[in-house]
């Protein structure tokens, strides 16, 4: 049981290690800057083109209240899709900087590493890893949709399991 509580200290020990080494901060700053710029661009595009998207997908001849309600549902769905896109692309673009930071930390800790293959190779590896993760996530979500074929139990289990899978993949 002591090892469980000792393991809870690892995130704080990692943060302390990171704060004591300013040379690592540039890698962190680059990854955060890329993600902030990407997030700002996606939010701007979302807010700028939201009404055009609603107008394009929902006919103007529908009742106003129905159109407004469906417009907000569509907005919520697009926003969730953009969050997944942000996570996917942000991880892919930040991967070379995080790889360099990891190599530096492991070198400081005395680990022997294979020769570095460069940032372009890291970007390619990240693209493959993120694509596989996205395909795997989609396959699991499709499998979870099949739970709806089981009356009552499947319908009750799907939201819980789907949420847990989403949290696991985003975390």
Describe this structure in words.
The chain is mainly alpha-helical. It has six helices and no strands. The chain has helices at 2-7, 10-19, 25-57, 64-108, 119-145, 153-170. Helix 3 (25-57) packs antiparallel against helix 4, helix 4 (64-108) packs across helix 5 (119-145) and helix 5 runs antiparallel to helix 6. The longest helix is centred in the middle third of the chain and has 45 residues, at 64-108. The protein is extended, with a radius of gyration of 22 Å. The model has no long low-confidence stretch (mean pLDDT 82).
Number of H- or I-type helical stretches: 6
Structural class: mainly alpha
* Uncertain ranges: none
Helix content range:
over 70%
Q: What is the mean pLDDT?
A: 82
Distance between the termini: 25 Å
Which sequence of SSEs, written as H and E, runs from N to C? HHHHHH
User: What portion of residues belong to β-strands?
Assistant: under 5%
Q: Please provide the count of β strands.
A: 0
Largest sheet, strands/sense/barrel: none
Shape: extended
Taking Cα atoms only, what radius of gyration do you get, to the nearest Å? 22 Å
């Amino acid at each position: 049981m002591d090892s469980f509580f000792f393991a809870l200290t690892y995130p704080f020990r990692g943060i302390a290690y990171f704060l004591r080494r300013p040379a690592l901060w540039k890698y962190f700053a680059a990854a955060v800057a890329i993600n902030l710029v990407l997030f700002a661009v996606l939010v701007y595009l979302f807010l700028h083109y939201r009404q055009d998207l609603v107008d394009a997908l929902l006919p103007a001849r529908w009742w106003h209240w129905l159109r407004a309600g469906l417009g907000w549902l569509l907005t919520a769905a697009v926003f969730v899709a953009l969050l997944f896109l942000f996570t996917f692309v942000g991880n892919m673009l930040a991967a070379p900087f995080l790889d360099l930071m990891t190599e530096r930390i492991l070198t400081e800790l005395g680990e022997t590493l294979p020769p570095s293959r460069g940032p372009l190779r890291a970007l390619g590896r990240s693209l493959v890893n993120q694509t596989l993760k996205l395909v795997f996530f989609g396959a699991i979500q499709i499998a979870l949709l099949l739970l709806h074929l089981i009356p009552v139990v499947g319908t009750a289990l799907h939201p819980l399991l789907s949420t847990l899978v989403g949290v696991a993949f985003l975390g």
